[in-house]
Here is the input.
Amino acid sequence: MTNLGCTVKTCVHNEDKLCCLKEIEVSGKGALNSDMTCCSSFAKEKGAVANVLHEDPERKTDIKCSVENCTYNHHYYCTADVVDITGSKATTSGQTECSTFKQR
Here is the structure.
């Protein structure tokens, strides 16, 4: 499991810069840099609705990863100790990114 930080304030799963999901997915199959990655688990919060499941934020999260060019991808799971998902004003998953991406 990875320590996951998230600054995507517009995501319904974000609470205090932590994700409330036990597992997320990072996409960007042919990515060459972090701009070409995204958090596929992003879900835009709607108005005052945030963390609708009222789950506690997770410090450690499993991360499925389809970013084949990332050095941390091992059998489609992230092996980085710490991952940061960014995109503070995102309205779609494509406006988020895995800033921890490191090209092989």
In short: The beta strands are 2-6, 14-15, 18-19, 23-27, 38-39, 60-65, 73-74, 77-78, 82-86, 97-98. The longest strand covers residues 60-65.
